[in-house]
Amino acid sequence: MQMSDNQLGKKTQLLVRERANECCEYCIALSNYAFHPFSIDHIFPISKGGHNDIDNLAWACFHCNGAKYNKIDCLDPLSNKVVSLYHPRRNTWSEHFVWNDNQTIIIGITPTGRATVNCLKVNRQGAVNLREALREFGVHPPKFY
């Protein structure tokens, strides 16, 4: 059973959000400009034995959280092998992903990166459009990515 954000407590929610710099830890969407509220994702899902440790929690946008659901692995479209999804506490974003030239599309550069991009649909048209608009205003990509 998945716990709601309210059950995790305000202090935990704040810690998770601040640690993520107000960005989805998967697609780097900025929560301040999102159309839907962000939520806390259990990186290793409760339904698969995960728990509410702060190290198992990630700040996630509506779309990534929904697409991830209770997945921990997915198919790498290049190798056709099932690999682990990106884990925000164990993996470094820049080791698995890069931006395209205009910084609107996330490119997976490892099996984990490609599987995550594909499975979570991080380059859905709405996300790319928002990145383009935010880039024009100088707030995308966030300075720390």
Could you characterize the architecture of this molecule?
By secondary structure, this protein is of the alpha+beta class. It has helices at residues 5-8, 10-19, 62-68, 93-96, 111-120, 125-136; strands spanning 39-42, 57-60, 73-75, 82-84, 97-99, 106-108. The protein is globular, with a radius of gyration of 15 Å. The protein has one domain. The strands form three sheets. Strands 1-2 form a two-stranded antiparallel sheet. Strands 3-4 form a two-stranded antiparallel ribbon. Strands 5-6 form a two-stranded antiparallel sheet. 30% of the residues are buried.
Produce the secondary structure layout.
Layout: H1 5-8, H2 10-19, E1 39-42, E2 57-60, H3 62-68, E3 73-75, E4 82-84, H4 93-96, E5 97-99, E6 106-108, H5 111-120, H6 125-136
Antiparallel strand pairs: 1-2, 3-4, 5-6
Task: State mean pLDDT (0 to 100 scale).
Answer: 93
- Taking the alpha carbons of the first and last residues, their distance comes to 33 Å
Q: What level of helicity do the residues show?
A: 25-40%
Structural class: alpha+beta
H/E order of the elements? HHEEHEEHEEHH
| CA gyration radius, whole angstroms | 15 Å
How many discrete domains?
1
Number of helices: 6
Estimate the global geometry from the Cα principal axes: globular
Spans of at least 5 consecutive residues whose pLDDT stays below 50 are: none
